[in-house]
Amino acid sequence: MTERVPVRPPGIGTPGASGASGLPHPLVGLLSRSLRLTDEERAAAQAVRVRVREVAADEPILREGDRPSRCFAVLAGLTCMSKVVGTGARQIVALHLPGDMPDLHGTQLGRLDGDIWAVTASTLAFMGHAAVLQLCAQQPRLAAALWRATLVDAAIHREWVVNLGQRLAVQRIAHLFCEVLARMEAMGLASGDACAFPVTQGDLGEATGLSLVHVNRTLQELRQAGLVSFEGGRLTVHDRAALAERGDFDPAYLFLGPRAEA
Amino acid sequence: MTERVPVRPPGIGTPGASGASGLPHPLVGLLSRSLRLTDEERAAAQAVRVRVREVAADEPILREGDRPSRCFAVLAGLTCMSKVVGTGARQIVALHLPGDMPDLHGTQLGRLDGDIWAVTASTLAFMGHAAVLQLCAQQPRLAAALWRATLVDAAIHREWVVNLGQRLAVQRIAHLFCEVLARMEAMGLASGDACAFPVTQGDLGEATGLSLVHVNRTLQELRQAGLVSFEGGRLTVHDRAALAERGDFDPAYLFLGPRAEA
DNA sequence: CGCCTGCTTGACCTCGCTCAAGGCCCGTGG
DNA sequence: CCACGGGCCTTGAGCGAGGTCAAGCAGGCG
């Protein structure tokens, strides 16, 4: 009945992730999602020096309280930000897909208010805070675009608050699946109605505030309803409309629509 | 046993809220919390024209999907951002105290991803998006400070995710109380261990993802433990350390500490 | 005076948690 | 080649935190 598939498959975004010509600068990729860059702006962004680092699955990248001097963009893989409560339980507060900058807010706030973990083996592009801040000071449109990126993250947080505060287990999971597929699609990382999503059921629980056991039963319910498959680290949505309906999902909060140029 | 006190008392921040000399410009107040302004910067901020408006309790200020051309700061009172789910239930995703700018993110995102309501009768200071954006373009340090303000909001959202995802009812309420008192204090709106907090038990439920009934019983528990009083729209914390302990509260995420100047 | 809003209480129910055990797949080492 | 161990998924049984429904009460206001 239950198909068995190798765990933790290849990965996300590995094949020439986000552009054509060799290695596009991660900032250029991020910025041109919300802006049409001028040559000067592109040059300024590309001048920010990048150091690429690989991290293994379940490796801590940054710790709560850290005052890092560099921030990073996810090139491939999956990272998350989480916080630990008094009981020792962990809540994932954000998922970062390729193209995201998980700790961009750190450049402004200086201190990190949660841990950042690699969920799967990932490729990260580190940039110095100083260089990013200088870029912001010299290129106001780019500063605005980066600001906007952090505001979208905040909008996602708000929707997560709603998800955890008001929705039942099935809806929470369905909603998360809808969000992940929509964001993957926006990054060009989905194929049809499927995308890589190599997280464990335990991870899902920590993101949705549910126990591992209940996530398992909830997944069975979604599976048996014919809405999704979630096996082998891959998410396949069989009926998008029905899943969105089930999860009370409206993608407006992702601000993926036609870019609102200033 | 249960004392009865008039509902919806005077209000918050009414008495010469945030400064000495007549009416300080709301932007100046907000900005100088994280920055020591130069004369030029102060002048530029004060040049942003402001229109003050009073709103009644439970009045909608902005609606989800709106594309406002102005944003506002809370001068006095209490507002919130909330979202409504399919079942009709409402989740409050943010509380705004005097000094906050509830829809500052709207200047960059253009569209609002939730409703903004006046929780109590409030005084709001509206400013045009264009003027604020122009200020950002001309004064990079002010732009950074406003960006930072939205990042602190995001950090609060993340903590709320944790609150809703991992904590029991008593902890959720205790945590919220700690947060409100800390933020009120930071705005100079607390007196000793008490502050105005004129919300109904229903409002508390919508902020913490609990039913009204359960909020009521939970409040009794906190009251009988001698930790807080919450009557007559006023919050009084009798044992701060114990309440913080009970609510698993660590104020680090509020970024109230000594301002991290660039 | 009567209504409306907000608080309080009781009884019952259910969603989701906890505890516990077993199974499958894979990697490792003898 | 096989034995062993460790993730991760699955299933069952019992329980408990919190929801729902319903009613009553107190105070403010027209």
Q: What is the strand and helix layout of this fold?
A:
Two copies of one chain form a homodimer.
Chain A: H1 26-32, H2 39-46, E1 50-55, E2 60-62, E3 70-76, E4 79-84, E5 90-96, H3 104-109, E6 115-118, E7 122-128, H4 129-138, H5 140-166, H6 169-186, E8 190-191, E9 194-196, H7 201-208, H8 212-224, E10 228-231, E11 234-237, H9 240-247
Antiparallel strand pairs in A: 1-7, 2-6, 3-7, 4-5, 4-6, 8-9, 9-11, 10-11
Helix pairs in contact in A: 4-5, 6-8, 6-9, 7-8
The structure holds a DNA duplex (30 and 30 nucleotides).
Report on the structure:
The structure is a homodimer of 262-residue chains. The first copy, chain A, has 262 residues and is an alpha+beta fold. In chain A, 40% of the residues lie in helices and 20% in strands. Chain A is built from nine helices and eleven strands. In chain A, strands 2-6-4-5 form a four-stranded antiparallel β-sheet. A four-stranded antiparallel β-sheet of chain A has the order 8-9-11-10. Chain A has a three-stranded antiparallel β-sheet with strand order 1-7-3. In chain A, a hairpin with a 5-residue loop joins strand 4 (79-84) and strand 5 (90-96). In chain A, helix 6 packs across helix 9. The radius of gyration of chain A is 18 Å and the shape is globular. The termini of chain A are far apart. The model of chain A is unreliable at 1-10 and 14-21 (pLDDT under 50). Chains A and B meet through strand 5, helix 3, helix 4 and helix 5 of A and strand 5, helix 3, helix 4 and helix 5 of B. Chain A binds a DNA duplex (30 and 30 nucleotides) through residues 2, 4, 6-7, 168-169, 200-202, 210-214, 216-218, 220.
